[in-house]
Specification:
By secondary structure, the chain is mainly α. The chain has a domain of 49 residues. Helices cover 61% and strands 3% of the residues. The protein contains 5 helices and 2 strands; from the N terminus they run H-H-E-E-H-H-H. Strands 1-2 form a two-stranded antiparallel ribbon.
Length: 123
C-alpha cells in the first residue's frame, strides 16, 4: 500500500497535549490519526470522543446529537449545573454528585418510559 504524508498546522500546546494523550493510551500521533481515519471511513461517519478518561469514554455522532436534542426538547434531559460538573471533576469516579445526577437521570428515564408506553398505545 502506498503511503502519503499529511501536513497540518495546529497550536503547539495542543500538539504537546495530544502527544501526551497518545502516549498514555500506548500509541503515537500517526497511529492515532490512522485509527481515527480508518474508523471514520469504515463507519462512514466522523465520531468525536468527548473525554479521554477511560472511565468516561463517550463517543457521540451527529445522529446521536440530533436524538439528544429531540429528547431535550421533549423534556427528557437531565439538568446539570456548572457547579455540579465542577464537583464531578473534583470527586472520585461515581462520587456523591455523580450519584445524585444518576438518580435524577433514572427518574427522567422512568418518565420517558411511561410516556413512550402511552404513545405506543395511541391508536
Amino acid at each position: 500500500m502506498a503511503q502519503a504524508n499529511i501536513n497540518i498546522r495546529i497550536d503547539a500546546d495542543l500538539k504537546r497535549d495530544f502527544e501526551r494523550l497518545c502516549r498514555d493510551v500506548g500509541m503515537n500521533m500517526t497511529t492515532a490519526f490512522n485509527v481515527f481515519m480508518k474508523q471514520s471511513v469504515r463507519e462512514n461517519k466522523i465520531s468525536v470522543a468527548l473525554n479521554g478518561d477511560p472511565a468516561h469514554k463517550t463517543v457521540v455522532t451527529v445522529d446521536e446529537l440530533r436524538k439528544g436534542i429531540q429528547e431535550l426538547d421533549a423534556g427528557f434531559g437531565v439538568p446539570v449545573s456548572l457547579e455540579e460538573l465542577e464537583a464531578m471533576e473534583r470527586e472520585p469516579a461515581h462520587g456523591p454528585t455523580y450519584q445524585k445526577l444518576e438518580r435524577r437521570r433514572a427518574e427522567i428515564a422512568e418518565k420517558k418510559r411511561i410516556w413512550e408506553e402511552k404513545e405506543a398505545a395511541r391508536p
